[in-house]
Amino acid sequence: MNRFTVLGSDIASLWAKYGGMYLGGMRRTLILALIGTAIGCLIGFICGILQTIPVNKNDNIVKKIVLGIIRVILRIYIEVFRGTPMILQAVFVFYGLPYFTNNILRFSDKWLVSIIVVSINTGAYMAESVRGGIISVDPGQTEGAMAIGMNHFQTMTSVVMPQAIRNIMPQIGNNFIINVKDTSVMFIIGFSDFFAIHKSVSGATFLYFPSATVEMAGYLCMTLISSLILRWVEKKMEGSSDYELVAADSLTMTAGTYNISKPKDTQNNDVKTIDREGR
To answer: Considering the entire predicted model, what is its pTM?
Structure first.
């Protein structure tokens, strides 16, 4: 019998018996990726904005010291969580905190631990994306906002951030797709995501490769659909590419609808001038 036929038969039997479990794992994976990306983006926006607060020579010394301490802490946070694997971060939060705190800090809820780890990890990457998005906005935008009397908060919320969000939208979508795949490491703490279902099913049936094929197809479907939705959102944020040039001012009256009459004296003088020239 053809090996592809055997593979198809095994996949069909797995789906008939464990299809509900696979779909449940996909649902939990998408929920975790969505929540983790949303909270991570919020963390990233806060960190990115704090890193771009301007410091001038005439500023208060307290402001300089506080911002300096905050930026050092943010830099340590970003480098640590970008420089270590998410699977080890999950191990540290779930197993390490009870170990170092004598079980004072113990998270029994695996959903909570997974959301915390994915959110903090995403926030570290988004912090640099947001900082780059803010820097990419033309400085003339900020100068123009300051010129009309806006303070830094108003400038960021009304001028800079709307443009920065549009610039970093592809990166937000990229982080979401990465999280859909990287949440598979949460099986290390017993979280029943899509990949954990694969391990359970393959362990029960010894059909490792057919189950892995189902997993691959499932992850591919989730990421492709997510990419299509995110591209649609990006196009909506860009607005329409069609426009029409204004040929005339709509507030100006159309020619022929009004007359400009000269003063009587001017009209008489013009008539007399014409008569004299005519003579």
So the answer is: 0.77
